[in-house]
């Protein structure tokens, strides 16, 4: 199945603050998942789920493919062993009054996993917004 998630969210915070929330491991832990992320191209990292639905191993293997601070980051995302990698792109643009985040998650994926990702990303972006509101 072709996965094509495209979400656009505006946050009333400067680009630098949103960028920190996307690239700081402690911030990622709050709004996304447990991780061992490092902000370095070529870095492989793991995202660990807090809740593990039936049929999922509980973690995602990722790699930081491209990094253009503070505006763009691209990850490779392997949901389950043997799956082809999908891609997650975060793009930040300064807008009047804050930052526009464009998130895209694309690639070939199992239909059930694709459905979970389409349903899950909006909640994760809501968690990101809550995290941004709670931090200085």
Describe the structure.
The protein is about 30% helix and about 40% strand. It is an alpha+beta fold. The protein has a single domain (about 1-135), classed as Alpha-D-Glucose-1,6-Bisphosphate, Chain A, domain 4 (2-Layer Sandwich), CATH 3.30.530.20. The chain has a 7-stranded antiparallel sheet. Helix 1 packs across helix 2 (about 25-30). The protein starts with a strand and ends with a helix. About 20% of the residues are buried. The model has no long low-confidence stretch (mean pLDDT about 95).
| Largest pleated sheet | 7 strands, antiparallel
Number of extended strands = 7
CATH superfamily: START domain
What percentage of the residues does DSSP assign to strands (E)? 35-45%
- Kindly name the structural category: alpha+beta
Distance between the termini: 41 Å
What is the CATH topology assignment?
A: Alpha-D-Glucose-1,6-Bisphosphate, Chain A, domain 4
Radius of gyration: 14 Å
SSE sequence, one letter per element? EHHEEEEEEH
Low-confidence spans: none
Number of domains: 1
The first-level CATH class name: Alpha Beta
Shape: globular
- Mean residue pLDDT: 95
Helix content: 25-40%
User: What is the quaternary state of this protein?
Assistant: single chain
CATH architecture: 2-Layer Sandwich
Query: Widest sheet: strand order?
Result: 1-7-6-5-4-3-2
